[in-house]
Design a protein that fits this description.
Blueprint lengths: L8 E2 L10 H14 L9 H21 L6 E4 L2 H11 L11 E4 L5 H8 L3 E4 L1 E2 L5 E3 L5 E5 L18 E5 L11 H4 L3 E5 L10 E5 L30 H32 L5 E3 L8 E5 L4 H10 L2 E2 L1 E3 L4 H7 L4 E4 L7 H15 L1
Helix pairs in contact: 1-6, 2-6, 3-4, 6-9
């Protein structure tokens, strides 16, 4: 059993956010005092579990400007996107879907599920790697914010096609309004905003027009979002979700301030070449003359946790002519003192 606390500076929020104490407390309270399965009983504990699910669904809906009946719990963004790919051929509203547009901005999880089941066409990007145009297609997957570039992308809408939005990165940094986006489906993960792993949100604008791809458990003959939720839900994670959503809304701006400071200081180092633009929510860069993996190993040896590699976004890296990059992403747990320490470590490593 691992018991030693690891002393480190955690700069990988874009991969997964650290959990606020309030979220941990909410989950522990459920596990210790209220645990029971939801939708399965009439006792006080089961009714409490039902209320937790209802509250979390309402909180998730409010977080993105949706209605509770449009919110479906999944196991994460990847699970949500795979489920959409599975449901597209089954839904009457999606009859005849054969071609899905994707882009080089996509995370692997936003492209591979559709690539396995449909004909793929590529969206055109401009010189600044923004969406320029979408080709003729039946459905399009839009990456709302690249996990490499860290800037919000404009959602190009067209009522003639189904629009699916991967918002896994965007929700941690900016307010989302699905009514304004007018998308047909949107997905994000709980773990990137401070909730626990194994929980995701799938928003469907018109859930009644979709047929589920999973069957069993309490889902049989159920109405509303429950018919998409076969089996036992990740109840412990759901218990912490409302608190995580509230914390995320309150703390979004802080991490951007730290990134801005860090970039201004790193711009003074000649060997650093930035990949992410100046208005990014994160820092992605390369160090001239040093492989990203070597940089990451040296930073790790100094107790700094950051991301190196292709960020599960290999198509974008190929477009940039790079095999790997370095990414720093901060969260509400990070401090200015830590940024100053990280700067000194970077200077020491690449001197």
């Amino acid at each position: 059993m691992l018991t030693n606390r690891i002393n480190s500076i955690y700069l990988d929020a874009a991969a997964s956010a650290l959990k606020p104490q309030s979220v941990i407390d909410a989950q522990l309270d459920f596990l210790k005092n209220h645990y029971a399965n939801a939708g399965r009983g009439l006792c006080a504990r089961a009714e409490y579990a039902d209320r937790i699910v209802i509250r979390a669904r309402e909180s998730a809906a409010g977080f993105i400007g949706a209605k509770p009946e449009q919110i479906i719990f999944t196991n994460g963004t990847t699970d949500g996107l795979n489920r959409i790919a599975n449901m597209l051929p089954r839904a009457p509203a999606c009859a005849g879907v054969t071609t899905v547009a994707v882009s080089d901005l996509d995370h692997h999880s936003a492209r591979l599920p559709f690539q396995e089941k449909h004909k793929i066409v590529l969206c055109e990007l401009d010189k600044d790697l923004n969406y320029k145009s979408i080709p003729k297609c039946d459905a399009v997957v839009i990456t709302a914010m690249s996990n490499v570039l860290g800037v919000r992308q404009k959602i190009i809408m067209d009522k003639k096609r189904i629009t699916i939005v991967d918002a896994a990165q965007l929700v941690a940094h900016e307010k989302i309004d699905v009514k304004e986006m007018n998308c047909d489906a949107l997905v994000f993960s709980g773990h990137k905003i401070g909730a626990d792993t194994g929980l995701g949100i799938l928003y469907l604008k018109e859930p009644d027009k979709w047929q589920t791809d999973k069957f069993g458990g309490g889902q049989y003959m159920a109405d509303g979002p429950v018919r998409f939720e076969a089996g036992t839900l990740p109840l412990t994670q759901i218990a912490g979700l409302p608190t995580a959503l509230k914390e995320c809304e309150e703390r979004r701006a802080k991490s951007t301030d730290l990134i801005r400071y860090l970039r201004e200081e790193l711009e003074k180092i000649d060997r650093i070449r930035f990949i992410s633009p100046k208005d990014s929510c994160l820092l992605t860069f390369v160090v001239e003359g040093m492989h990203a993996l070597d940089f990451g190993a040296l930073m790790g040896a100094h107790g700094v946790c950051l991301r190196v590699g292709n960020m599960c976004a290999s198509w974008l890296h190929q477009r940039l002519g790079l095999d790997a990059t370095i990414r720093i992403s901060t969260g509400p747990w990070n401090t200015m003192e830590e940024m100053e320490q990280v700067l000194e470590i970077i200077k020491k490593i690449i001197k």
